[in-house]
Amino acid sequence: MMGPAHSLSGAAAWLGVGAAAAAAGYPMPWPVLLVGALISAGAALAPDLDHKAATISRAFGPVSRWLCEIVDRLSYSVYKATRKQGDSRRSGGHRTLTHTWLWAVLIGAGSSAAAIFGGRWAVLGILFVHMVLAIEGLLWRAARGSSSDVLVWLLAATSAWILAGILDKPGNGADWLFDAPGQEYVWLGLPIILGALVHDIGDALTVSGCPILWPIPLGRKRWYPVGPPKAMRFRAGSWVELKVLMPVFMVLGGIGCAAALNVI
């Protein structure tokens, strides 16, 4: 799928988690619901860090372009080193390492660890990165062009600072779900994992499928492209994505938000 659909699906997924958490007796304070949805929207773009033409490759200027090249090469190296006889030959690392459940869990766990041991500046860094990606994904057309990059970064930095200040206030959710001393912001890893997994599921619906289950082998393949029957798949950017899935994500997100806030 394309960036806007990925971001919408990530936000909708977190709002759905908010509704489920409220039903289970662990309601999210509204700042957690809002920040988690934005983080998940941003994280839903991050697996494409292995693709030089993806939205994330230009989100942070030369830094992200350089990082994309490194991740692409790393992913390709891992693919070559672990492929089985049934896996096809390829020339790049797109839709390999960063499109797996293992990568999602490691990135999310690493973010939670950074929040614990890195303190406020680590939290601000995590928020800033994902605010930039959320803006790039949700406001795709408005955020395009190098002239808007600085404005996006300023908006993301301001948003991160304000949202962190709101979360820090008692009862606003810094310790949501993990309330032991020293566990503030551990939950930040959850929307990151969710966003990455939702991205993978979205890509699995497209023609190429997605090797979500790696490194678990399936038959003669370790990089099995998980997906529905080919007749049910669509091409990225097609009318199915734009006219059907994106409106569905918006509706489901609205229902999830209302349920999470006990409006319905």
Task: Note the main attributes of this structure.
59% helix; mainly alpha; 264 residues; 0% strand; globular; single chain; 8 helices
Strand percentage, roughly? under 5%
Find the structural class using helix and strand composition.
mainly alpha
Give the helices and strands as they follow along the chain: HHHHHHHH
Helix content percent band: 55-70%
The overall pLDDT average reads: 92
- Overall radius of gyration: 18 Å
Poorly predicted regions are: none
Largest sheet: none
Counted beta strands: 0
| Domains (count) | 1
How would you sum up the global shape?
Answer: globular
The rounded distance between the terminal residues' Cα atoms is 31 Å
Number of helices: 8
Summed up, what is this model?
With 264 residues, this protein is mainly alpha-helical. The protein has helices at 3-23, 30-43, 55-59, 62-82, 101-138, 149-168, 189-204, 239-260. It has one domain (3-260).
Structure, explained:
- By secondary structure, the protein is mainly α.
- It has one domain (3-260).
- Helix content is 59%, strand content 0%.
- It contains 8 helices and no strands.
Please describe the topology of this protein.
Blueprint: H1 3-23, H2 30-43, H3 55-59, H4 62-82, H5 101-138, H6 149-168, H7 189-204, H8 239-260
Helix pairs in contact: 1-2, 1-5, 1-7, 1-8, 2-5, 2-7, 5-6, 5-7
